[in-house]
Amino acid sequence: MADETNMAAPATEAPAENTEREARAPRGGNRPGGGNRSGGNDRDRGGGRGRNDRDKRGRGGDDDGGEELIEKLVHINRVSKTVKGGKRFGFAALVVVGDGKGRVGFGHGKAREVPEAITKATAAAKKKMVRVSLKEGRTLHHDGKGRFGAGKVNLRSAPAGTGIIAGGPMRAVFESLGVHDVVTKSVGSSNPYNMIRATFDALTEQTSPKSVAQRRGKKIADLLGRGGAAPAEAQAAADSITE
Q1: What is the pLDDT of residues 45-97, one digit of tens each?
Q2: pTM
Q3: How far apart are CA 122 and CA 120, in angstroms?
Q4: Residue 211 has what pLDDT?
């Protein structure tokens, strides 16, 4: 019996020593490579976030093209589509985009949410920007009329200090275009889509004396002098025309 007691005693003390040794040892030390695996995952996650941030910044720079554009939200309308089981609602946005230096465009987009509709409309407007020649960079060269459907608009050039006398959608177009002095009148439909298209119809008909002189093979001063202006005044006005 004594021999059996002496033999059993070491067996009961050995697990206690092992338990104390395991408690003193660090948690990651008993697992080979455990710390490396966790550290690798942290680096991988951090690297992934960095790459995504760089990709977003790069895509944003490509979309803008390094050019600051003026974006005007003209109109938002809730639209619906009848499907089996009821109606599906969405939103339609009309946006005008310009650089304030003679280029402007408009676009519309539809989506289930308002921000996505505005994004689609803005992208469409950037693709359809047109160049409009301006007099002294502030007003139109001559009067014009535009029409689309039932929408009719009249545009008139104005002296400095007049401001933008226009309302609703037409004001957004001229502010994005960079016009500072203009007088407009809408005599037809008040639908914003028709008004915008009629305004662009009038703007695309704008021509500068420089382009007319090149087309006819004459000097700009000769064209300006036919209105009864003195030769010196006509030449001064011709020199001030840049486009």
Answers
A1: 444 444 333 333 333 334 455 678 999 999 999 999 999 989 999 999 999 99
A2: 0.65
A3: 5
A4: 74
Domains defined along the chain, listed by start: 70-131 (3.30.160.20), 144-240 (3.30.230.10)
Instruction: Note the pLDDT of residue 214.
Output: 75
Helix ranges (DSSP H) in 29-113: 34-64
Give the C-alpha separation, 218 to 81, whole Å.
57
Which amino acid would we find at residue 67?
A: E
Phi, psi (rounded to 5 degrees) for 185: -150, 130
Phi, psi of 90 (to 5 degrees): -150, -170
DSSP-H helix ranges across 25-167: 34-64, 114-127
Cα–Cα distance for residue pair 93/71, rounded to 1 Å: 12
Q: Which amino acid is at 13?
A: E
DSSP label of 99? -
